[in-house]
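Tokens for Ubiquitin carboxyl-terminal hydrolase 5 isoform X4. Go.
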Amino acid sequence: MMMLEKESEGGLYVCMNSFLGFGSKYVDRHHAKTGQRAYLHITRTRKTQKEDDPNSGSGDPPKKKPTRLAIGIEGGFDVEQEQYEEEVKVVLFPDRQEVTLDDLSSMPDVVRERVSLSVAELQAADSVSHTLQVQQWDGEVRQESKHAAELKQLDNGLKIPPSGWKCEVCELQENLWMNLTDGKVLCGRRYFDGSGGNNHALLYYQQTGYPLAVKLGTITPDGADVYSYDEDDMVLDSKLPEHLSHFGIDMMTMEKTERTMTELEIAVNQRVGEWEVIQESGTTLRPLWGPGLTGMKNLGNSCYLNSVMQVLFTIPDFQTKYVSNIDKIFDEAPSDPTQDFKTQVAKLGYGLLSGEYSKPAPDPADEPNTSAEPRGDQVGIAPRMFKALVGRGHPEFSTNRQQDAQEFLLHFINMVERNCRSGMNPSEAFRFLVEEKIVCQQSQKAKYTQRVDYIVQLPVPMDQATNMDELQEAERRREEAESSGAPPPVAPRAQIPFAACLAALSEPETLTDFWSSAVQAKTTATKTTRFASFPDHLVIQIKKFTFGLDWVPKKLDVSIDVPETLDLNALRAMGQQPGEELLPEVAPPPLMTPDVEVKAPVLDDSTVSQLCEMGFPLEACRKAVYYTGNTGIDAAMNWVMGHMDDPDFAAPLVLPGSSSAPGTTPTESLPEEHLATIVSMGFSRDQATRALRATNNVLERAVDWIFSHLDDLESMDVSEGGRSEGGSEASREPPPGPRVRDGTGKYELFAFISHMGSSTMCGHYVCHIKKDQQWVIFNDQKVCASEKPPKDLGYLYFYRRVVE
């Protein structure tokens, strides 16, 4: 169903009633199912490129060097726009009788008018679909700063010379920014690779709050680069001539001597091919074709999606669920399969595994009598409909921005959970139980809890680097360079043993503010995390992305000797031990004000806002400020970093005595249609009620909440108080609740996803998958045999259980 587009073999058949498109292989199925007879048959033939086209498709720059940070706009990066000759005709089923547009002239007026009208509407709909595809993006569109109109400038008599600038702190002479409030000239931010400035302009804003700065060397009569630290973005300043004149700068006489931020970003985007190690660019890779070796087109920063889906469809559970039953899925598809999750996932899976689309892409540079090496690009598949469906309604995955592959994996697993309440659920391949054991150090009594998880997040202990002497020497040279104003040296990559990462995961964590029900007071406790079950397929995320001392997100440049085989049996949870006493099940006392009346505390809105601007969920930010007692951003940020893995991290803050607590608002009306929707997914009415009350009756949030609280909800229907906190672990039998598989903790590596770039919000993803004992690199449309798989630089690692 709609497997490819009009240029695919056999063309595209578009139903003239529903406007749904089908490949030649599936149009008969639709005719038999619906009785529809008339289809518009559209075929495309690719036009021959001109001989002087210098684009060889080998990673060379576009014909014209980009001068604008944009896509599909004059001066920006080129969008792949193939040129085609198109043929359109009407086909009548079941005999596939062809009716060309010229044949319509001989038909009765009524028939001719109706067919012509349908054809015109179909062609118009097609053009609309192309406009809706995000072919254009302009990264230079800037908004007027909220500070520009009323910016207060100090009358300090300072006049800035037209040249010869240097940072007033470190004397750096490039990447300089002048603060528009007081004329202070300071260096810009340090980039992820050590280049750039030394952050003095940013630090000065944090000290003074002066919001706007202009980049010296970019000022021309047409404008300049203006940055708002408060708004954290490049902005427009409509009063820039006036603001510059205050410090003696005549904008009309200035000439550009520095690259603008746009030019710097363009240069970075043109250096994608320099990430040689992960993409194995230094060697000639042998292209591969065939079933399970199908490339995927990059739809604009969709490499995160491509990499995740390539890996998932190497897992038997997903193959069985969506590809082995594809005929049944297509036969049972609703009238509009474009909005059906099962149909679209099955379509994608079939496209990846069948081999039908694993064919060399036509190379516009190919000429007769040439013997160039094959590029490895494939025709591949463009998962536009799949991406639109799984991203619909999501604030990030519905956009064309780069995303975190780990977050997308969890998002997709969540969607699988929603759509597999009955029948086989392939996400069970990843699902496992985590046991957390907390021991009160004063009473030595223990508490056991379990939660469901799908990914092991492995910390990176930088202090365990095996090349620490080299790193310390590099840091010393960097400090010397910073003090002298010289460019910083290139930092070496930290070498971290995998065993150290595993030890950091399993070592006990000290809780300094634990409320012990045994001593009825706050005390110190230790928390130990272990596996209560081992999944069939284990996903390990290397926690490379963290925050610096200034809370700016950064990526750790590390190499980790990730093993091909893994034995985690030593981390098996053992449950309550003989003679071990459990902490009493007594709730801590509510927070009280001096007059003993429970009141909602006033949260520091500025701290909440700062946390939200870093990308954390609003409710998590409110919790952080509440539980740290409004003591400031540092304490709140520490709370966030320590609770990011909590299953209720983003759940609404429930205050003591608040009527927003689940189950405490019997008078609040719940939307009956929302209740019916959740109940139809297999949950009880009580469970649906609890989910809606916990999320202020927002259906989408309620569904997300319910799947992140499965263990709590299941216990609502279990007799005798629900799940035991320790009794079932000793026998290693999974407790009542979510279905989990269990077995040995021995695994072998079969895939990993790597990220290139300074942040999950930019850069590029590729994946390596082991196929028939041969590592294969999937780099969007390129599928090649891997020569040197960079297993030490991965971000997500996928292991399968070793069956003994």
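DSSP finds 21 helices and 29 strands in the chain.
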